Amino acid sequence: MRSQMRHTALLAGAAVVGLAVIAFAQGQPTPAVQPQPHGVFGAVLDYMRRQPFILLFLVVAVGYALGELKVKGVGMGSTAATLLLALIVSFWAFDAYKIEYALPEFTSTVFFNLFIFAIGMKVGPQFLGGIHREGKHLILLSLLVPLLSSALVYASRYFTHLAPGLLAGILSGANTATPGFGAAQAALASGSAALTGDAARQAPGNLTTSYAFLYCISMVLFTVMMSVMPKMFGRDAVADGKKMEKELAGEDSAPLPGTADSFIRGYMPLDLRVFRVENPALEGRTVADLDHAHPRVAIERVYHDGRVYNPPPDLVLSRGDEVAMLGPVSLLLAGGPHIGPEVDDSKLRNVKFDTVEFIVHDKQVVGKTLGELALRMGHGIYLNALFRAGDQLPVSREQVVNKGDVMRITGSPKRVADLRKVLGPPVKPSLSTDIITLGLGLAAGALLGAITVPLFGIKFSLGSAVGLLIVSIGLSILRTHNPALGGPFPESARQLLEDVGLNVFIAILGLNSGAGVAHAIEGGLLGPTLIIGSIAAFIPPIIGWMVGQYIFKMNSAVLMGAIAGARCNSAGMRAAQEASKSIVPAIGYPVTFAISNLLLTLICYLFALMG
């Protein structure tokens, strides 16, 4: 435990290197004349200002590389490293050379929305099971963390004087709650705040500066904290993540249709063996005769007269031919000697197998049992799994097939082509991505998040993040019922959207924040803002974790996502996924994120009205 605490201290020390630079600069006089970029570093940083694309992806690349570094097995992760690097570069450029980076916020929004959508497309099938198990606990955590944070910020008024606008700025920045910041801005702009004269003029600037400063600092440190939190409390997030995945999926369950692992074949109780025809009784017999003699074994290929055949039923066999047979090992071992000796080095072994999914619609199949279908079309194929409405069904000869059921089947391309004539076109693994579904899903999620509901004079909305999560989770659940819905969405493409989306978003955030951090220093806001903000940012999540672990007995991987959501921190959720090596943290994230966001929006609005 002490060793883990030392590791945590080392990581926290690395994460606040930027803060040390800021603290040193706080006492430096502001130059009367803005200096022009000079020297090698000044020229490079100014060039990057004129080439923001190069700057952005250099920061992303180096941040990823730094995130891979570990101190005694513990690392910051790519998310925290990228944000910390971007913040240091941005502050350095502004403080030393008055170079201010201003990458387009729209670009940041696009990449963040891609990240959120990709998360929902992965977590959907597990989300309902997770909510069923932990729903009450998630709601309580989503209330506990933001309310405790708000109480701590409000209580600071009795110990220190806070300039106008800081109350709401500290709360929204410490919790990385952008909607709360927006609500506070609206409250100040409305003129309803209890402020007059200079205080009214100073409040918007104080609000913006404290929010921007704490947002970045809180994002970096909370991301690091999420990476080490389970170890601090003696939990193994990797083991807990795997345990939860097994509990939600079932020990022997196959991956659901439309999910990342749906086309991974796994164990198949069939084998391919090659036999040379030496039995005189087979001379002049056809492939159809051999099929009839071995009803549960399929003849996949034949080597005849120097050629390899995908054999037609009427192909006549001769002594010396080689026959590739697919079937259960016991039947191959029993039937093979009646054909001839087994051949080890035959060219016929190079038979490829495809795993595909068929959605049952044909009247010839609907209402039939699997036993009946096996006699008609089961030759040479293996039924991996059968699904109905997103649930796996037991495979037995008496199981009746209904319309809309999904059959996952493995067989040679020839066998799959034969099935296509009856079952229709299969759903196959694909490297392409359906851009239509992606575009419509992003638009629908943003539209849902933009819908506003007036309440107590405040216009509440879910926000694009929650809207996109709802749409993408819903779409991924529907795809488990019908894997053809929405076209192909391969896991490799989804993972790319998730990784690049978040890291580009936080890189832009860090690069755009250097000037705000510098202004916080010049305005003398660093001390009270940092102290109060740190208390409000990190004490409530720690208490929330203790409640979740010791009182609610929650799975640590789910708890990581719940705490990240209660802190409205998407980067922390990504760090939790990295630490647990699992998608499970995303199960606890959406509910707490939505409730906490709405709650903080209301409280920040009230804090701004209070001045």
From TrEMBL:
GO biological process, one term: potassium ion transport
Organism superkingdom: Bacteria
Gene Ontology annotations for the cellular component aspect, listed alphabetically: plasma membrane
Protein biosynthesis as UniProt keyword: no
Major localization listed first in the record, in broad terms: membrane
UniProt keyword annotations, A-Z: Cell membrane, Membrane, Signal, Transmembrane, Transmembrane helix, Transport
Subcellular location: Cell membrane
Xref: InterPro entries: AAE_transporter, RCK_C, RCK_C_sf, YidE_YbjL
Gene3D superfamilies: Regulator of K+ conductance, C-terminal domain (3.30.70.1450)
Membrane topology: Multi-pass membrane protein
GO molecular function: monoatomic cation transmembrane transporter activity
Entry's transmembrane regions: 51-67, 74-94, 106-125, 137-156, 212-234, 435-456, 462-479, 500-521, 527-547, 583-608
Stretch forming the signal peptide: 1-25
Domain RCK C-terminal: 258-342, 343-425
Pfam families, A to Z: Asp-Al_Ex (PF06826), TrkA_C (PF02080)
Family the UniProt entry places it in: Belongs to the AAE transporter (TC 2.A.81) family.
Protein name, UniProt field: Transport protein
Organism: Myxococcus fulvus
